[in-house]
Amino acid sequence: MKETGIIFNIKKFAIHDGSGIRTTIFLKGCPLSCWWCHNPEGLRLEPQKITIENNNKKEKPAFWETQEIIGREMSVNEIMEEIEKDIIFYEESNGGVTFSGGEPLMQLEFLYSLLHECKKQHIHTALDTSGYSSLEDLKKINNFVDLYLYDLKIMEDQNHIKYTGVSNKQIIKNLKYLSQNGKQTLIRIPIIPEITDTAINITQLGEFISSLNNVKRVNLLPYHRIGKNKYDKLKMEYKMKDIQSPTNEKMEEIKNYFENFGFQVKIGG
Amino acid sequence: MEHKKICINDEELIVGERGPEPKATPTYPEVCCHSLKDLDILNSREKISFIVSDETKQLTKDIIIPFWKGRSIRDKIFEKLDSEWIEAYEAGVFTEFMEQRAPGHTVGDKKIFTKGFLDLKKEIKESIENLDFYNDPDAFNKREELKAMDICADALIIFAKLHSEKAKDLARDEENVKRKHELEKIAEICEYVPAHAPRTIWEALQHYWFIHLGVITEYNTWDSFNPGHLDQHLYPFYKKDRENGTITYEDAKELLEAFWVKFNNQPAPPKVGVTAEESNTYTDFCNINLGGLKEDGTNAVNELSYMILDVIEEMRIVQPSSNVQISKKTPNEFLKRALQIVKTGFGQPSIFNIDAIIQELTRQGKSIIDARTGGASGCVEAGAFGKEAYILTGYFNLVKILEITLNNGIDPITGKEIGLKTGDPTKFQIFKEVFEAFSKQVNYFIDIKIKGNNIIEQLWAQTLPAPFMSLLINDCILKGKDYNNGGARYNTSYIQGVGLGSITDSLVSIKYNVFDKKRINMQQMLRILKDNFKNSETLRQLFITDTPKYGNDDDYADETMQQIFELYYKAIDGRPNTKGGHHRVNLLPTTVHIYFGSVIGATPDGRKAYTPLSEGISPVQGADTHGPTAVIKSAAKIDHLRTGGTLLNQKFTPKLLADDIGIEKLAHLIRAYFKMDGHHVQFNVVSAETLREAQKNPEKYRNLIVRVAGYSDYYVNLGVDLQNEIIERTEHGAY
């Protein structure tokens, strides 16, 4: 297929994005702008140029300082070629492909084609999504998705708008739809100190998730500052300032809390 | 053997040392007569040194050198070989295994645990009686050989009896009741084995240990002999002991640990010159096989397989080395248990694909049973245990040959013309011409190497037979023929290709940058290499970062790798040796990739002059940027089944294996590689930070063990080049 989309990374041997050994395709562009986002290079839809600082001029040659372009246009065929290379590993490990981002649903037609191609070859597919899309869009691809990695962040909508830039109404509605249809889903909750880890938010999350009937597991993703230097490179403001990663004790405490609801809970992906 | 000083160490349960005390090692002047200067170097060199006493030096000067100089096999080899061979050897085109150490490269099978030396003597007697002096012109030679074997069998029995007597003496004076009892038991065991076949697990281990000492006393054999499938061989003894109630699980484990210490007490005998460079380690390459398949083809993992893994984990020493043999029939739990030890980061056990090994061996003409009871030894070498002499003859420097090709037969380092005149490369119009010139040079040097092998093999056969080793390997007794002279059922000579990643990336860089993309012409390329990239750093970066590389599942690069493999394979495989067997290929480096790199200028892959080559079949250090699945896919494009072993190193961050999920995914990775017929893979699980820290503060990291090639070694014992090379290997993390 000649159809193209914008990709900003293809990661092989991804082992924390669903079951088994996977290839993760990162589609560029996201309608959300979460303060803690660790892939800020995935926010804008179009490829972007960045200048790489060169602090060690002696060792690196002049061209090293030139610009790097994040994101490139790739055809469905080109991406499928990369995906197919690791079929033997998917088979061996019950792995497959994960589409992540950005928000993969932003490039709906392109995502649709990729998922469709994967299913033709019986490759297991996972969609790592914020859930922020129209229900029609979700329905369009739903038949080709085996597993959702579905982000839930903040239940109280005003806070959700404040920290992510969008309302969570549609996100919750879509997740309920998946639940009604019995779609296998892993809920992923970023644990961001003082933002998502408040007692009230955790309680509300727990109550909401327990109303669903399709959740295989809850993954708690502790905030980390790895993304920070990407913001510097992209010359973007890092709103997290000095907020540090949650402590192990805090993570365990939240894990225990969710486990009390009877979920299978895991810290990390 | 009667004159040997007998050594029984405090508290030990398995007894016997090669020398008068642990770690003491002889030299073997009949093989290599060390000069006084050699002894000084051995005594004073920074890494892998040996203390040489004044008494030893005096003895060497007064007695050994006057007799052996000119008579040692090393002297004879250099005397008998052609000047082409000597020139290529000196240029670093290949190395020679048998110039300082004896042919070994073999492993024991079930026979060594089921027969006593009195049984072997009986077989010898029968074989002599069956000699047909009327019709067999070789009968006299056979009788002499068999008589020599018989003397060796007696020698080992006598050696054991001396230990029995010594143990009795020690028991008499021992006040500690427990130790007294142990010494009495040792005395009893050494009286019984190795004359008779062992009856208990303790006897079996002691029996083997005497055999081991016999082998390493006779010669300084390469890839020290080992008991092969130890878990399978010991299991019947263990089972019987447990049924009889004579031993507990803990007792058996303690005996095994005592056994492990004995291997660790025997460093590789001193090596000098190129041999020290190619194999710079105290490790003597005993490589114990676990798991695998039984003779009937069923899964062989048993209780002892797991117990021995526990022993390996608890002992955490470099010798003996260990590996697990994984078949599609092997339980996943066994693989995962092995990976839990790999995770602790000392490079053991390494992981082999026994299904591939069996196909490799049967392709070479071995019976399916002989293949199943075989396995891997040394670094990664496939062999029919107890029935094959599979001799590594030397490493072959594929990258050096490209350098010679690009200089039209001249070695630019010395200016000597040692290769063929294959044409001025600046006149080549298409890449195919480069490859054809390279092919001619490879064939030319392989011819020189094989001719040399056929001479050296006969020098050994005629002057230094190995009657003790011949007792252990079938069918030497039956044929009345020496191990070094074709007595084994199978006789294979290997030439080990080195630098597959470097040679692929270098040829691919020429193809891509000179002929396809036309970034520069050949003349410019040659000048840049000659100048070692001085003032061409930008181009060097293009060669490194924007040129296809082996190890990324990129067919552009990998197809060239396959062509190189075909070329190498066709140049060698199937050519006869002098013992009724054939030459074969394998791909492994030990530490020679450092030495081979040190004799080569800059290469088109962006490698600077005199720096290390890639090792084994691993990609060039840092060139594999697409993660471990891509490395494995690339490596699987080699036709492993037509080799006798390939070595793939992978480095993972400790974080990747921090939890069970990491272990499980690693197991999947390995299974997928083995499905594609990969031969072997091994892992370093230690962070680059730790390695850098250890370089700075070696005293704090004296116990840090890393995987080098087909063996593990103490990091602080490695040369700094090798330390750096290991740091630079690509580290795969968890995503």
- The proportion of residues in beta strands of chain B is 5-15%
**How far do the termini of chain A sit from each other?**
32 Å
Strand order of the largest sheet of chain B: 1-2-3-10-9-13
Largest interface, with counts of residues having CB < 8 Å to the other chain, equals:
A-B, 23 and 24 residues
Q: Figure out the total of helices of chain A.
A: 9
Mean pLDDT of chain A comes to 91
Could you list the spans of chain B in which at least 5 consecutive residues all have pLDDT below 50? none
CATH second-level architecture of chain A: Alpha-Beta Barrel
Strand order of the largest sheet of chain A: 5-1-2-6-7-8-9-10-11
For the biggest sheet of chain A, the summary is: 9 strands, mixed
Query: Could you state the order of secondary-structure elements of chain A as H and E?
Result: EEEEEHHEHEHEHHEHEHHE
CATH class of chain A: Alpha Beta
Q: Please report which band the strand proportion of chain A falls in: under 5%, 5-15%, 15-25%, 25-35%, 35-45% or over 45%.
A: 15-25%
Quaternary organization: heterodimer
Query: What does the radius of gyration of chain B come to?
Result: 26 Å
Summarize the structure.
The complex is a heterodimer of chains A (269) and B (735). With 269 residues, chain A is of the alpha/beta class. Chain A has helices at 76-85, 87-93, 108-120, 135-142, 157-164, 169-180, 199-210, 228-233, 248-259; strands at 4-14, 22-27, 48-51, 67-70, 72-75, 96-101, 125-129, 147-151, 185-191, 215-222, 265-267.
What structural keywords apply?
heterodimer, A: 269 residues, alpha/beta, TIM Barrel, nine-stranded mixed beta sheet, two-stranded antiparallel sheet, 9 helices, 11 strands, 33% helix, 23% strand, globular, B: 735 residues, six-stranded mixed beta sheet, three-stranded parallel beta sheet, 29 helices
